[in-house]
Design goal:
The complex is a heterodimer of chains A (564) and B (72). Chain A has 564 residues and is α/β, with parallel strands linked by helices. In chain A, 36% of the residues lie in helices and 16% in strands. Chain A has 23 helices and 18 strands. In chain A, β1, α2 and β2 form a beta-alpha-beta unit. In chain B, a hairpin with a 4-residue loop joins β2 and β3. In chain B, α1 runs antiparallel to α2. Classes of the chains: A alpha/beta (564), B alpha+beta (72). At the A-B interface, α7 of A face α1 and α2 of B.
Chain lengths: 564, 72
């Protein structure tokens, strides 16, 4: 038994079935231990993709995603994905090799102080100085990644520690070694809101005439059934942040859709007219609020979150409910049942009528519109499919249209907006959900940040379907240049894009092309029915914009539905 | 603003100082002592009220994560 083997044993104890990674010098002992080990390893083609795959695995399964990389450049390539996991509260554990202990501080080959680099973007990181600490540290890392508000944790292990000899049972060996608990009991420590705060919240709810509930990413940790029960018992109009799409009961007429910068008009307008806002596991991101001091000005705010530091950070709260969201919703339901249960059906109907059909740009008849293509895609997508997106226009178009059956059926880089996320996240999602169809909707910009992952797809025959919305532009930036930068299209034109279908085929991936709207029905049917991984290249109109849009720092009163 | 904190991770002191800089606050005093179990630290910060509020919230988050860790 050496340190590397102890790492894998510790991972097995945490229920890890797969690690996404990329080998290199300092972490070679771990890769040696992985050889023919029951913990599987998926070789990605870039460390960033490995970390995004771990995130996709975690986001769509609720389990901790694990990635690994070598020291120096391997470790620094994880940084974007770790920050992405931090922003979206995704439980990820990253294991990095470090140069030998004797080389640390000598500017050794592939040396980087990854703990210092990742301190602001992880919940915690650990540098293991002695192999006897490996099992307890990894147990602690997993407990911390899962506990409270989930997030990423990094464990950095020097090469000599990975190679160090241990006794046959490292778990026993470490018990006598140090103060760290072998079995942290963090998952049992979920907070519950106080009874007083719940009573106050329900009293305010009973007194409200135009309440709106907003569900946020907190729902991904659990509480979907409670949320659906709560919403249906009140008939309350409700909206979701992009992190919580899928939380509402499918077909719920009181659900107004996504809110925010590119959210649905009804959702944004209802929030702005609300006299009470029930914010559930959401953090009032600036893409949701626009200008905070003009956001929902008439509303009393009840804010529920597991992270108390979110309270009053952006929007002042009149009542705070500090607790795990499932406990909070249960407590609200119980308290409501003790007295009058108000119904808000009339207001919900009125709120729905504040919206209307999604606006979209008209494009020439024979040119494919991205929004039309996505509308048709979601008509034929298997209902239980998992959808991941990259970042940009296609992300917003997809978020406006997708109807995931549960929050874990939709994964996107929401808080960080990291291009290059969508495709590798889909690979991770497919590993975590082998019997579920997985679709990655990506743009031509972000897809080119992770093209080599086609090799990962091929090697493991992961049945991910890639829908490439190719408008030959970095479309969202182009849209902003058109609207806010006097049409000065600086560095957003991708007219020289490669032949993506040829690239896919070169990797052994089936490829389909769609450019004529008249072919959409046939091509989509063939694509969806294709066995195994496949790419659908959609050659779309280059200047179609995302509507509606609330310009940054403004409010729904400034909402745009078309070019001026 | 004065902050008195007990930290499990000594490195969090550096994190807090960096956050103050990021929020355009000035750290005018730090006292810290550590033993094997914990680090006790006291900070004085100057800065705009809104920035200090944001800094305090971020410090609270660091502390919350450390409480998560020792809760077991």
């Amino acid at each position: 038994m050496n340190g590397a083997r102890a790492v894998l044993e510790a991972l097995e104890r945490e229920g890890v079935d797969i690690v996404f990674g990329y080998p290199g010098g300092a972490i070679m002992p771990l890769y040696d231990a992985l050889f023919q080990h029951p913990v599987r390893h998926a070789l990605c083609r870039h460390e960033a993709a490995a970390a995004f795959a771990a995130s996709g695995y975690a986001r769509t399964s609720g389990r901790v995603g694990v990635c690994c990389a070598t020291s120096g450049p391997g470790a620094t390539n994880l940084v974007t994905a770790l920050l992405d996991a931090m922003m979206d509260s995704v439980p990820v554990v990253a294991i990095t090799g470090q140069v030998r202990s004797e080389l640390m501080g000598t500017d050794g080959f592939q040396e980087a102080d990854v703990c210092a680099i990742t301190q602001p973007i992880t919940k915690r990181n650990f540098l293991i100085a002695d192999a006897s600490e490996i099992a307890s540290t990894i147990a602690e890392a997993f407990a911390l990644a899962r506990s409270g508000r989930p997030g990423p944790v990094l464990v950095d292990i020097p090469n000599d520690v990975l190679k160090a000899k241990l006794g046959e049972d490292p778990i026993v060996a470490l018990v006598a070694d140090g103060p760290r608990a072998v079995e942290p009991q963090l998952s049992g420590a979920k907070p519950r809101p106080s009874a007083d705060s719940v009573r106050e919240a329900v009293a305010r709810l009973r007194a409200a005439r135009r309440p709106v509930a907003i569900i946020g990413g907190g729902i991904r940790a659990g509480g979907v059934e409670q949320y659906r029960t709560f919403a249906s018992m009140l008939g309350i109009p409700h909206a979701a942040t992009i992190m919580a799409l899928g939380a509402a009961t499918p077909g719920d007429p009181a659900f107004l859709g996504m809110l925010g910068m590119h959210g649905l008009k009804a959702a944004n307008k209802a929030v702005q007219r609300a006299d009470l806002l029930l914010a559930l596991g959401m953090r009032f991101d600036d893409r949701v609020t626009g200008k905070p001091d003009r956001f929902a000005r008439e509303a009393t705010v009840i804010h529920a979150d597991i992270d108390a530091t979110e309270f009053n950070k952006i929007i002042p709260a009149d009542v705070t409910l500090h607790g795990d969201l499932s406990y909070t919703l249960e407590a609200l339901i119980d308290e409501l049942k003790r007295g009058h249960v108000p119904r808000f059906d009339d207001w919900a109907m009125e709120a729905r009528l504040l919206g209307g059909a999604l606006p979209s740009d008209r494009v020439a008849e024979r040119v494919l519109s991205a929004t039309d293509a996505l509308d048709r895609l979601f008509e034929v997508l298997p209902p239980d499919a998992i959808v991941t997106t990259d970042v940009g226009q296609h992300q917003m178009w997809t978020a406006q249209r997708a109807r995931p059956l549960a929050p874990r059926k939709f994964a996107t880089s929401a808080g960080l907006g990291a291009m290059g996320f969508g495709f590798p996240a889909a690979i991770g999602a497919a590993f975590a959900n082998p019997s579920v169809p997985v679709y990655a909707v990506v743009g031509d910009g972000g897809f080119q940040m992770c093209l080599p992952e086609l090799a990962t797809l091929r090697r493991y025959d992961v049945p991910v379907k890639i829908v490439l919305i190719d408008n030959h532009n970095l479309g969202m930036v182009r849209q902003w240049q058109e609207l806010f930068f006097s049409e000065r299209y600086s560095a957003t034109n991708l007219a020289d894009n490669p032949d993506f279908t040829a690239i896919a085929r070169a990797y052994g991936i089936a490829a389909f092309s769609l450019s004529d709207p008249a072919d959409a029905h046939r091509v989509l049917a063939e694509f969806v029915a294709a066995p195994g991984p496949a790419l659908l290249h959609c050659a779309c109109h280059p200047t179609e914009n995302v509507w509606p849009m609330i310009p940054a720092g403004m409010t729904v009163d400034d909402l745009m539905e078309a070019r001026a | 603003m004065t902050c008195e904190v007990t930290l499990r991770d000594f490195r969090s002191i550096a994190r807090i100082v960096n956050l103050a800089h990021r929020f355009n606050c000035r750290c005018t005093r730090i006292d810290a002592s550590a033993d094997a179990q914990a680090t006790k630290a006291s900070f004085d910060f100057d800065g705009p009220t809104a920035a200090l509020t944001r800094l305090r919230a971020q410090i609270d988050r660091i502390l919350a994560y450390e409480i998560d860790e020792v809760a077991g």
